[in-house]
User: Which sequence fits this backbone?
């Protein structure tokens, strides 16, 4: 599997935001990565701004370019607002739902516990992180995994949780997604 295993703070510094949900671990967020520091700020072209938004979204959700492009093409084939449909498809991936339910602190950890067969969807083991959940699906942790003692996470409005089980109540809307990504720039990038 081709996933990024390099330094994550470097990617966060490149985008200027905390991409991986590590909170206060991100230092020097205003300084872009590189051996000699910033060489001066240049104004981004329209294409550069579109590319940065696409890269930011791709890195937040932990997808490869091929997975990201394929998801966008699927969203573009549906009638309606492509940007909203695209983010609905990204949010309903199983690894993202496990993260949103607060079972784990990061999406990378969510992807790992899904891949290690610790997640059950409607009582059946699912080990595919890209599995698309539907409204009414019940996601539970396997019996051999213990939840860390965590504070009560703030859940999005489209999911609910009770102990080691969570439920997808409805499909997420664009307003439910708290990431600061401009979906229109991504649509424009792929529409070139």
Assistant:
């Amino acid at each position: 599997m081709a996933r990024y295993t390099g330094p994550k703070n470097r990617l966060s510094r490149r985008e200027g935001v905390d991409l991986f949900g590590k909170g206060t671990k991100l230092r020097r967020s205003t300084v872009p990565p590189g051996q000699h520091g910033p060489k001066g700020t240049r104004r981004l072209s329209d294409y550069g701004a579109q590319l940065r938004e696409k890269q930011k979204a791709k890195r937040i959700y932990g997808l490869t370019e091929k997975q990201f492009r394929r998801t966008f093409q699927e969203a573009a084939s549906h009638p309606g607002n492509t940007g909203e449909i695209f983010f609905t498809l990204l949010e309903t991936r199983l690894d993202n739902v496990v993260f949103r339910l607060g079972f784990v602190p990061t999406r990378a950890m969510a992807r790992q516990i899904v891949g290690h067969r610790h997640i059950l969807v409607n009582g059946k083991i699912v080990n595919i992180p890209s599995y698309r959940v539907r409204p009414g699906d019940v996601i539970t942790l396997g019996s051999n995994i213990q939840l860390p003692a965590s504070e009560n996470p703030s859940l999005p409005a489209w999911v609910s949780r009770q102990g080691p089980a969570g439920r997808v109540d409805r499909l997420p809307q664009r307003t439910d997604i708290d990431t600061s990504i401009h979906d229109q720039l991504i649509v424009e990038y792929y529409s070139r």
Summary: The chain has seven helices and five strands. Residues 48-92+180-192 form a domain with the Ribosomal Protein S4 Delta 41; Chain A, domain 1 fold (CATH 1.10.1050.10). The chain has three domains: 1-42, 48-92+180-192, 93-170. The longest strand covers residues 138-141.
